[in-house]
Amino acid sequence: METFDLRGTRCPLTLLKIKQFLYQASSSKVQFLFDDVGASIDLPLYLQKASKWHLELNDHISYFEAICTLTSTHTSNTKGSIA
Q: How far is the C-alpha of 35 from the C-alpha of 53, rounded, in Å?
């Protein structure tokens, strides 16, 4: 699992970087750490549209943890899509 620490990054850059990392992901499971509240709202909405990634979003005291897993129908190609 790849991990990207985006804590300290602010909107809209957080979501833009997550989109870029998902597009370039070399594995089917990616973890993001971030503290941007706006991204915690926007990321689930984006992934609903992209539909290639399943999201597990955990709210820790000082940051969010997003674990994105490529859905089984897309495991042959780990590249995400940027909407």
A: 21
Helix axes 13-24, 37-50, angle to 10 degrees: 40
Q: Are 41 and 7 in contact (CB under 8 A)?
A: no
Q: What is the pTM of this model?
A: 0.84
Please state the CATH superfamily assignment of the domain spanning residues 2-74 in this structure.
TusA-like domain (3.30.110.40)
- Cα distance between residue 64 and residue 76, in whole Å: 29
For the stretch 9-62, pLDDT in tens is: 998 999 999 999 999 988 999 999 999 999 999 999 999 987 789 999 999 999
